[in-house]
Amino acid sequence: MAAAAHSTIDQTEVDRFSAMASEWWDPNGKFRPLHKFNPVRLTYIRDRVAGQFDRDPKSPQPLKGLRILDIGCGGGLLCEPMARMGAEVVGADASQTNIEIAKIHATKSGIAIDYRAETAENLAADGERFDVVLNMEVIEHVADVDLFLSSCAQMVKPGGLMFIATINRTFKALALAIVGAEYVLRWLPRGTHQYEKLVRPEEIEQPLLSSGMSVIDRTGVFYNPLSDSWNLSRDMDVNYMMLAARPR
Q: Is 174 left (phi over 0), alpha (psi -120 to 50) or beta?
């Protein structure tokens, strides 16, 4: 898929993640932090979606009947559990390599997911609409944050939700999420994140407001080394999630 003249695609980022694509489903590989991060973000998504759409979060398929887009889906680490919870899932990624890995794993797992090598702006231009858009750990890798957010927002149905997870642009995040995680602990390959591309909460909120959405929740996420797990926190200085809604 070629990038348009004005696009959200950062080809360097696409190439970087494509080169690691074979490791998406290795819990001890280069995407180990995302595997560790998955439980807290899945619970957050499930519970907030259940609340918005009047579902029982503890039911076997609390997302049944909802159409969900995971934009920047990578190898499908979020798509598959969303589908298991009953959602009709579209997984989109700018990397054809990532999409092929995701398709293979979904087939092996016996899960039906509509995977597409596509951008947010092209999906929006095609008139795609969703009850929920997941924008998780991708916004810091795109070329045009405002275009990306407005395109994602355009696809949210009235009464629908968009989840955003990313890393704040603070010196604390530089120390912990880049120097610590990539250079000292080597949880991630060096160069996975660039400080200047990290995104502050207000830089997300303004484009969403301009697109007719409002932020209804925000939370920090921190790593607890004693339990080797991620947990919600009031501290948004490093990792954080935001939830936006479109009025009914």
A: alpha
Alpha-carbon gap, residue 239 to 165, rounded angstroms: 7
3-state SS, residue 71: strand
The reported pTM is 0.94
d(CA 101, CA 75): 6
Condensed to tens digits (0 to 9), the pLDDT of residues 207-234 reads 999 999 999 999 999 999 889 899 999 9
Angle, vertex CA 94, rays to CA 192 and CA 86, nearest 5: 100
Digit-coded pLDDT (tens) for 79-98: 999 999 999 999 999 999 99
